[in-house]
Design a protein that fits this description.
Blueprint: E1 4-5, E2 12-13, E3 18-20, E4 26-31, E5 35-36, E6 39-40, H1 46-54, H2 57-61, H3 70-80, H4 85-88, E7 92-93, H5 107-117, E8 120-126, E9 132-138, E10 142-144, E11 148-154, H6 158-165, E12 168-175, E13 180-191, H7 194-200, E14 218-232, E15 235-241
Parallel strand pairs: 7-15
Antiparallel strand pairs: 1-2, 3-4, 5-6, 8-9, 8-12, 10-11, 11-14, 12-13, 13-14, 14-15
Length: 242
Amino acid sequence: MEQKFCQSCGMPLTNEVLGTNADGSKNEDYCMYCYKDGKFLQDCTMEEMIEHCAQFVSEVNKGLPQPITKEEYIGQMKMYFPHLKRWRKELTINDAAPMENPALAGVKELIAKMADTLPITYISSVDEEGFPCTKAMLSPRVRKGIKTFYFTTNTFSLRVAHYKANPKASIYFCDTEGFKGMMLRGTMEVLTDAKSKEMIWHKGDEQYYPGGVTDPNYCVLKFTATDGRFYSDFYPRSFVIE
């Protein structure tokens, strides 16, 4: 069974420590120390929660082969907490609206620029043993905002088999000259309908698919982003895409 963590403080969740909803039922997202009767017990910022959790580094070290310092633990939490449900809402990108959060200024434009200009995109899938598998692909054929991206690939490829079994996916854009990286997480669909195949078909694709747009070994990968992580100027930022 997949281990779940409190989406407020990051502690491992078990049935014994689950918080409660307003009706008294168990809440599957938060622990009893953060959430009770449908309300958060602490009115605090993410930074204040990190400082609070840092005092328990000695407990954390009991389960680690190599102990870490309080400063190292704080650094790890600063990287991890923006992904948690309670805090990630502070960093949200609305694909259809102007950017409002100054912490993510320019990120929408950078995603679009990377997708449109970089020749290579790295896509990842999950194999049958649960390991991530990454492959370099040509840039997206079609992009709709910063949420939907279309790629072309072989129907009978290992990547397609992975996505059919497990649609969880990520794509990564890397600007080596600017030392910037953009990772988007989401799901990948395998499309074989005529409309989708015609939409991204390019002249010259016959060299890859001799049968043309109806070649059975030609299909479309549709990636839909849910959230991401941006690295620039030695500083990472996590965000959710709505």
